[in-house]
Structure formats: structure tokens, C-alpha cells
Specification:
binds ligand LKXGUNVN; 306 residues; three-stranded mixed beta sheet; alpha/beta; ClpP/crotonase-like_dom_sf; single chain; mitochondrion; Enoyl-CoA_hyd/isom_CS; globular
Length: 306
């Protein structure tokens, strides 16, 4: 009822998983546009090593453009930087939406950096997995509207990032593929990867997809609902911003409470099993047979080039 009254908009602050639906507060969207910038990065891009973040003060929309050569693989450093950026945007009262995309015209993200899982100590593996969890918790639990502009291929962890968003727009190119292909590497998608996919495409399609480690072409991804729309490559950002404006037309508090209601059980499942999930990962990835599979997969990737 109070929405937009006297320029006031009711919003929920913080992260869904951290603050639930109780921390509601008022902010003035009308007045904020006229105020000088308060934080150090509003209205201009700030560049980190692995991504650029640009927040448009007028629209309240930030674009995170991943730019880690060659294929946006999700290393410990990348994931840490991503979580910090999401946290900053989440805390910024002027930011209401995030578009996630890639500066690489062919690859959205190659998924987890396999080098972080091969030949590493258990301590490193545990730290890495905690960072993977954190990336997902920040994205899946975000109060902001999150849209993935998938402008290239997006296997495994890259697909997970897209699944964690509210809406997925993929470039209409038959060469691009998306999916959770873990079993093809001889590894297993953890329960929260599986849950993220079930929540988007349903149980039967997820089981089929996960057992076979299927990668879907853009058009097949659309058919099973893994992505919501296909758009010409050169229109993807314009389209993502236009979809974003539709989502932002919904009063924040109503949308955020609804999002929390839908996502909380899935978030809570990881939050309550976080340490055992890390231990499972470390035990699993340390097995000789799994290390061998990863070694062969890395060699196969290198050989494909020659
Ligand atoms: C009981 C058990 C119960 C529960 C389980 C418990 C725990 C769970 C355990 C494990 C879960 C792990 C979950 C894993 C998730 C992942 O994300 S794994 C990563 C999967 N990713 C892939 O399979 C993608 C592989 N890459 C590609 O298919 C292609 O590279 C590409 C389509 C992305 C790009 O193709 P091209 O443009 O042709 O580029 P190249 O293939 O030439 O690659 C360039 C360069 O990049 C290197 N590279 C590619 N992908 C990765 C990667 N993911 N990590 C690291 N490096 C990568 C590639 O080797 C090339 O390197 P150079 O040869 O240039 O050195």
C-alpha cells in the first residue's frame, strides 16, 4: 500500500538467506536520484581483476561482466571477488537488479576451474568449495532481481550461476551449449546443484540431464525451460535490461518476500549442511580415481586444441 507513496518504496535489505523477510525498510527512490553518490563506485564502472561491475544510478541496475581469460573459469580468486561484489551491491540501497554476463563473446563461463580441484591439498580443496558455496548462496539468495545474459557456452558451474538467477536469456546460437555435465568428467553434481536445476526444469528432466551429463544447445535449452528466452547475440544486453525493467516494476517488498518464500527451503538445506558438504567434496575429490578422471579430462581439453 505504501509503495511509491511520497516517493517512498518499501524494500527489503540484505540477503534473503541472511536476513529473511523481516528486515524491511523504506528508501526513497525519487529522492535518491537527485542525491550525490554516496558509495565509491556508483554510476561508474569499477574494475576488479576478473570482472567489471557497473551500476547505473538512474535505473538501479548493475551489470557484472565476467572477464577472466580465456574462458571465465571459476577459480578461488574469481569466486572470492564475485562474492565480495555481490555483497557490495546487496548492501547498496540504490542497486535493485543485477545482470550477469561475459566479456568473452563465445563463453559465458566454463564452470569451476578444474585446476582448483586437481592435485591440491585437502585444505585448499575445502577453501575452494566454501567459495563455490558462497558464490551460490549470494546469487541464489539475493534480494535483487538477477538476470543471466548467457552470451556463450555455459557448462557445469557456469550453468549453476545461470540457474541461480531469476531469469535466463541465452544468445540464439546453435554453437552454444549449457548444462550440468559433471558426470561426463566422472564427478557428481552436489545436492544443491541438483536442487537448483529441479527448481527450474523439474525432477524428471533433471534426473535425465544429470545422469547423462547432458549439454543442451540453446534451442534445446529453451525447449526444456533451462533458459527462458533466446535472443540474437547482439541484442542480448538490451533485451536483458528491458526484461529487468519489467521485473523492477513490481514492488520490491512483494517480489522479495515471494522470492524468499520460494527459495528459502533450498537455501536452508545447504546452510544447515554446509560443513558436511565441504567434507564430502574434499573426500570425494581426493580419491585417486577422481583425480585420475580430472587429469584425463584436463589432458583431453588441451589435446582438443592441437
Ligand atoms: C558421493 C558423492 C556425492 C556427492 C559429491 C560430492 C562432492 C561433489 C564433487 C565434485 C563436484 C564438482 C562440481 C563441478 C563443477 C564444474 O563446473 S567442473 C568444470 C566443468 N567444465 C567443463 O567441463 C568445461 C570444459 N571446457 C570446455 O568445454 C571448453 O573449454 C569451453 C566450451 C568452455 C571453451 O571452448 P574453447 O573456446 O574451444 O576453449 P578451449 O577448450 O580451447 O579452452 C581454452 C583453455 O581453457 C582451459 N579450460 C577450459 N575449461 C576449463 C575449466 N573448467 N577449468 C580450467 N581450465 C579450463 C582449456 O584447458 C584451455 O587451456 P589451455 O590449453 O589454453 O591452457
Amino acid at each position: 500500500m505504501a509503495v511509491l507513496l511520497n516517493g517512498l518504496r518499501l524494500v527489503s535489505s540484505g540477503n534473503l538467506s541472511l536476513h529473511g523477510i523481516k528486515s524491511l525498510q523504506y528508501k526513497s527512490t525519487r529522492i535518491l536520484c537527485q542525491l550525490p553518490c554516496k558509495s565509491s563506485y556508483q554510476g561508474r564502472p569499477f574494475s576488479n581483476k576478473n570482472m567489471t561491475v557497473e551500476l547505473d544510478n538512474n535505473t538501479g541496475v548493475a551489470v557484472i561482466q565476467m572477464k577472466k581469460p580465456p574462458v571465465n573459469s571459476l577459480s578461488l580468486e574469481f569466486l572470492t571477488e564475485f562474492a565480495i561484489n555481490m555483497e557490495k551491491l546487496e548492501m547498496d540501497r540504490e542497486c535493485r537488479g543485477v545482470v550477469l554476463t561475459s566479456s568473452n563473446p563465445k563463453i559465458f563461463s566454463a564452470g569451476l576451474d578444474i585446476n582448483e580441484m586437481y592435485g591440491k591439498t585437502p585444505e585448499h580443496s575445502g577453501e575452494f568449495w566454501r567459495a563455490v558455496q558462497e558464490m551460490w548462496l549470494k546469487l541464489y539468495g539475493s534480494n535483487m532481481v538477477t538476470i543471466a545474459a548467457i552470451n556463450g557456452s555455459s557448462p557445469a558451474g557456469g550453468c549453476l550461476m545461470a540457474l541461480a538467477c531469476d531469469y535466463r536469456i541465452m544468445a540464439d546460437n546453435p554453437k552454444y551449449a549449457i548444462g550440468l555435465n559433471e558426470t561426463k568428467l566422472g564427478i557428481v553434481a552436489p545436492f544443491w546443484f541438483k536442487d537448483s536445476m529441479i527448481n527450474v526444469i523439474g525432477r524428471r528432466a533433471t534426473e535425465h540431464s544429470l545422469q547423462l551429463g547432458l549439454m543442451y544447445s540453446a534451442s534445446n535449452a529453451l525447449k526444456i525451460g533451462l533458459v527462458d528466452q533466446l535472443v540474437a547475440q547482439d541484442k542480448i544486453m538490451t533485451h536483458a535490461l528491458s526484461v529487468m525493467s519489467e521485473w523492477l516494476a513490481i514492488p520490491d517488498h512483494a517480489r522479495q518476500i515471494t522470492k524468499s518464500m520460494m527459495r528459502k527451503p533450498t537455501l536452508d538445506r545447504l546452510l544447515t549442511n554446509r560443513e558436511s558438504d565441504i567434507q564430502n567434496f574434499v573426500n570425494f575429490i581426493s580419491k585417486d580415481s577422481i583425480q585420475k578422471s580430472l587429469q584425463l579430462y584436463l589432458e583431453m581439453l588441451k589435446q582438443r586444441k592441437s
